[in-house]
Amino acid sequence: MPVKVKILPSGREFVSEGRSNLLEAGLRSGLALGYGCSNGNCGECLARVLSGQVENTRYHDFRISDEQRASGHVLMCATTPVTNVVIEANEASDSHDIPFQQISARVRGLDFVNDDVALLHLKTPRTKRLRFLAGQRVRLGGNGMPTASHPVGSCPCDDMNLHFQVARNPADDFSAYVFDALKKGDPVDIIGPTGDFVLDESPTRPVVFIAWYTGFAPVKSLIEHAISLDTTAAMHLLWFTPPGADHYMDNLCRSWRDALDNFHYVPVNAGSLAEPDLGADSIATLMNIGEKQLADHDFYIAGGESIAAACKTALNGARVPLNQVSLDTGTSEGV
Ligand code: FES
User: Do 335 and 116 touch, CB atoms closer than 8 A?
Assistant: First the structure.
């Protein structure tokens, strides 16, 4: 039977079903709970049960002292709620609360969705997963391969399966290696996470995601995170692609649009333009609103420094406050 879990001091709540432990259920619901190994070894997920019943469902090496046990402390990765519970636990409030990590992962999948984009799936060891916030980046490479910074293109709710979208770029050694040499099973080091391109969960304003081609990766992570939070704010996704390029995850975007009442998806091809027209009037037209209403939204823009900067300037010119515009500028503009 589903039970309700309330986390203090934040007051956030989520529902846990089946045999999920507190940590798994919390991450799936979009909470940035404090944890390390997910496996009962490190003690970083230690939390205190303030009310309700829980059950220890996994052997753990980490030793909880008698005093801690007497005051209700449990390991969230080894404990399943039996009734509605209130738990006192650590949560990350921003990117500074996420530890810098180094993890040796393996290539689980490498899928070339078209001539210019590779979808890279890395899998971490079960006992060393990546703790990160949606929208953050990591450095990939090592083991004889070049290194590069890439945004994680998947949700922190699955910290073992990490997805990346790599654009073909002959001037980038990492990209060339991915397209020409990398294969399933190869080791890849993950170092990070870094970056502040993360969702501000406090405002209730509608959110607009603007992605330029593979800038879709961090945007996808943010959208999946917003979905796991069950946010009620409306979301708009404007995904621009270069001339002749396709929206290589169009079906996923359409499935969001079909499943969510508050999700609006507009795929845009730049047509004959080398770069998309990201003037405030164009953005407002694509969103089907008046230009004056842009200031009622929060904007997350990813996919190339000059494009993102031009977009930010245009929005600011339309009286959108700068603190309502977040940029991820590290994604390659080229294809
Ligand atoms: S996350 Fe390490 S003991 Fe729970």
Answer: yes
User: Which residue owns the Cα nearest ligand 1 atom 3?
Assistant: 40
pLDDT digits (tens, 9 = 90+) for 127-145: 899 999 999 999 999 988 9
Atom of ligand 1 at shortest distance to CA of 62? 3
CA of 46, closest atom in ligand 1: 4
- State ipTM: 0.99
- Write the CATH number of the domain with boundaries 207-328: 3.40.50.80
Index of the ligand 1 atom closest to the CA of residue 76: 4
- Token pair in block for residue 103: 């993890």
Residue that is written with structure tokens 């039970």 in the block: 3
**Alpha helices (H) along 150-214:** 173-180
> How confident is the model over 74-89, as pLDDT tens digits?
999 999 999 999 999 9
Q: What is the CATH number of domain 96-194?
A: 2.40.30.10
Atom 1, ligand 1: residue with shortest CA distance: 38
